[in-house]
Amino acid sequence: MxxxxxxxxxxxxLVKVENIKKWYPVQTTFLDQLFTQQRDFVRAVDGVSFTIxxxxxxxxxxxxxxxxxxxxxxxxGLEELTEGRAIFDGIDYSTLSVDENRKLRRRMQVIFQDxxxxxxxxxxxxxxxxxxxxIHYPExxxxxxxxxxxxxDKVGLTPPLFFYNKYPHQISGGQRQRIVIARALVTQPxxxxxxxxxxxxxxxxxxxxxDLMVQLKKEFNLTYLFITHDLATAKYICDRIGVLYLxxxxxxxxxxxxxxxxxxxxxxxxxxxxxxPNPHKRRTYPMPEGEIPNPINxxxxxxxxxxxxxxxxxxxxxxxxxxxLRPDHLVAxxxxxxxxx
Length: 341
Hints:
Blueprint: E1 13-25, H1 30-35, E2 41-53, E3 57-61, H2 68-75, E4 83-88, E5 91-92, H3 98-105, E6 108-111, H4 115-118, H5 125-136, H6 144-154, H7 160-164, H8 173-185, E7 191-195, H9 203-220, E8 223-228, H10 231-237, E9 240-245, E10 248-254, H11 255-260, H12 265-273, H13 313-317, E11 323-326, E12 329-331
Parallel strand pairs: 3-8, 3-9, 6-7, 7-8
Antiparallel strand pairs: 1-2, 1-4, 4-5, 9-10, 10-12, 11-12
Helix pairs in contact: 5-6, 5-8, 6-8, 8-9
Family: Belongs to the ABC transporter superfamily.
Keywords: ATP-binding, Nucleotide-binding, Transport
GO molecular function, one term: ATP binding
């Protein structure tokens, strides 16, 4: 790896993203390209910053289309940034070559949402989990089988030899998700991007998978970037959480603090949407109307103002910046003070 001046960063910070943006050009016809100078872009991520401490589980929550998965891919360098910087352990790896990125990749892995889409149906379970070792640790080829059997045992695929030569279609959905987890952890990474890791699992096994992820986090001292649309799930595993809306961060802070005192109307709406087991407890926050706007032409000012029940004239004109209203609790809302307890 070429030498580069490390980016100044606190020792306890593993990941730092600074004002990252990802704009996708809108495909147009040949005639439109010929006669129109202006180009439209899908602003999937439009200026997001956050940090993740070592050994922390940082959650990203929001509706579908808010930019969660895109931020995860940008954070790991799986997609090229339109603007901003993504820093891992003091290294701005957006400036690295392909070979240098590959060497760094063993320290970060992904747990994908749909195991059937991310697993090769013609590759046995043992081969699928071995593949990262072939790429990153070819010099340890003699140890690959033992390493794979060990990680299979740790994720609950027991006895490992029973599953080693089976194929994804021969086992249950919960077991397939355990394979994806095992494949992500077999290289002993420091950072794991968990992109809706239990969304495709049956309700009966989701709690088991969350318990497994918490256990593995402690055992391997992992750092999680946990992406979810379900705040109830985030509450189970995350230490801090960031709430996204239309490519921008609406609120970020310690999970217990954000849950106890949500300061952004959008966060309040997400909290109100979480089902409560007690039928006598009703929602205390009004639900927003309408759907998430088009990211090609987002609203001016605060992007949530067309749906916000508390919006005022200023909200449509001035875009709010993240500001700290409580210790380590930031919110992007002009009138968040009215919600401070």
